[in-house]
Design goal:
The chain is mainly α. The chain has eight helices and two strands, in the order ααααααααββ. The protein has a two-stranded antiparallel ribbon. The longest helix has 35 residues. The protein is elongated and about 65 Å long. The model has no long low-confidence stretch (mean pLDDT 91).
């Protein structure tokens, strides 16, 4: 068990099995993992380990319990190593998204009106996946507090500027961030 991911996985499971505090053991265990990973690369890392483990909460607790019951760490190391790699990937995607947001908003500066800015920022707030199913004209009207004709012009302008892509037609038209 010489690998970096193996060491980080073992540190976490050992800390969690000791469970020294009444509250906060999970947070401290994840900080310990990030510290081990950061020491290996010689600089702080930005990773969303907590986000990934939150999404896999049942699997996480089952793997911890199994390891504590059987003392066989290999399934735990496999699970946790995959979670760390997923966290790295999601962190990279988030950084890419933030950079793209910054570039887009900078390139559109002075070219869009306050309604369009408000709607784009609201779309960015939803994160990399955006609105489920895309932004509809109705959503635009509600967010921008504007009329249908103004929303139609604003949306067409955002598509022409390359900020949004358009899919569907008529009532099924949806707009997505063009990243």
């Amino acid at each position: 068990m010489d690998s970096l991911l193996g060491r980080a996985s073992l540190a976490h499971v050992y800390f969690e099995s000791i469970h020294p505090f009444e509250d906060g053991n999970g947070r401290i265990g994840r900080i310990l993992v990030e510290k081990i990973l950061s020491q290996e690369v010689g600089q702080p890392l930005l990773m969303a380990v907590s986000n990934v483990l939150e999404k896999k909460k049942k699997e996480y607790y089952a793997a911890l319990e199994s390891c504590n019951r059987t003392l066989d760490v290999q399934p735990w190391v496999d699970f946790f190593s995959r979670a760390i790699l997923q966290a790295r990937e999601e962190s990279m995607q988030l950084l890419f998204f933030i950079i793209q947001k910054s570039k887009m908003m900078h390139s559109l500066s002075g070219k869009i009106n306050p309604r369009q800015t408000k709607v784009l920022l609201r779309m960015f707030k939803e994160g990399p996946s955006g609105f489920k199913g895309g932004l509809s004209a109705e959503n635009y009207i509600k967010i921008a507090k504007t009329t249908r004709s103004t929303a139609t012009r604003d949306l067409a302008d955002l598509v022409e500027l390359g900020a949004l892509t358009k899919t569907g037609s008529l009532r099924h038209t949806r707009y997505h961030l063009n990243l």
